[in-house]
Amino acid sequence: MSAVSLVDQLVDSFKAQGRIVIVGASLAGLRAAEALRDNGFRGALTIIGDEPHEPYDRPPLSKQVLKGWVRADHTKLPRLRPVDAQWRLGVAAVGLDRSNRQVLLANGEKVDYDRLLIATGTRARPWFNPEEAALLGLFTVRTCDDAAKLAAALQACPRRVLIVGSGFVGSEIASVCRELGLPVTVAERGKAPLVGALGGVIGDIAAQMQIEAGVDLRTGVAVEGLDADADGHVRAARLSDGSVLDVDVVVASLGSIRNVEWLDGAQLASGFWGVACDAGCRAFDINGVVTDNIFVAGDVARAPHVLYEYQFMSQEHWDNAVSGAEVAANNMISLETGRRPHLPLPSFWSGQFGVNVKSVGVCSFGDEIVFTQGSVEQRRFAAAYGHRGRIVGAVTFNHGKWLPYYASLIERSAPFPPPPPGYDRPANCEPMPARFPDPREPTALPDVVLTGHDPTSRGAEFRPRTR
């Protein structure tokens, strides 16, 4: 028997009898399970999730659900095919025994695996004061249960809503509040909304959009504390500028935390930015050695990208979760020559204040920006970001049909400023500083982060909070 046919037999044997465990029952976990079955895996498949719900769609939670258009429990993700898996929902993974190839569960059980996919995603960063975090009227938005509770609070017509943080989720919630006719204040420690992801030039535009919509936007301020009534319901917020706001609902939109604590002691390269993996989704250990049977996908993955100087990239976007899951599934059951790279060009969209905001590439990698099409005044434009003479990102406001054009420029490292389009040129086509804040500031963490070249990097340096 030839060596080739022997290897093929081993692969076929694994597809028929292997054991694959997926930790994370959300978008990446579901799509990975479907891709495994599509690629011929017939062995035992177990999906573990800490929430009791089947996989559901998260983007509508801060949009359609809060508007009352869709119920939170009606956001279940469509199944593209049967996955024939053992679902272990409502029980969290609390440890990983790599020596015995077992996932340890919170109920004391152990689940054996031959291949493991880590797709545990992120969770909302909690309120900084543990005592205040228990107050009634204080919300985060990450799960469908979170969204359902906040939607009910908004439907009760509070006197004022305070949103702490003006990234994409915070800005979307502010937009929903204004559509519902609710008074809303946004407190942002940075200089403008969206500044971490899109820079100060676009941040100024986003700020003007909020103000024009009637948002009480407070930038350069922090919330120092919350006050409650005798029933434990939040009634006031104290800001760092000395002002006090009467509020009934507070939404903490403070960013996310990657769910890696359960991997403590597993000797994997996991930390603040997620679990490091190679371009084929194989996890690194703490010595920078790639593993053979542990893979990573979705928001918790941190992988190098050829377009961005091979820096490790962490990104929290739908397309990354889907494509990463599909690549990981393929590579878990393929020989070396059949493995594929996962090199997505980050993209996202956000709907806020009547504007469809779309972006592609890593805008925060750029240090310059140039408006290339449309009109800033009309909130209908495209802008490109540059770094060292090449285009690295682009953003559009109500001009999304042009995004594939800019994506193609980024993918081939086209020069910056990019060639002028054939029509609809803005009055000012001169590059200018993009004005991104210091990335060490916690308020400025974007949804796509470049984290250097060290696969074992675990920390992030933050400036101390000033009052």
Automatic annotation (TrEMBL):
Q: Which cofactor does it need?
A: FAD
Entries under Gene3D superfamilies matching the protein: 3.30.390.30, FAD/NAD(P)-binding domain
**A cellular component term, taken from the record's GO annotations:** cytoplasm
Q: Name one GO molecular function term.
A: oxidoreductase activity, acting on NAD(P)H
Q: Which domain of life is it from?
A: Bacteria
Alphabetized UniProt keyword annotations: FAD, Flavoprotein, Oxidoreductase
Domain Reductase C-terminal, by residue range, is 348-417
Is Cytoplasm one of the keywords? no
Task: Note down the stretches annotated as region Disordered.
Answer: 417-467
Domain FAD/NAD(P)-binding as annotated: residue spans = 19-322
Q: Is-annotated flag, keyword Ion transport?
A: no
UniProt name for this protein: Ferredoxin reductase
Q: Organism classification, top ranks?
A: Bacteria, Bacillati, Actinomycetota, Actinomycetes, Mycobacteriales
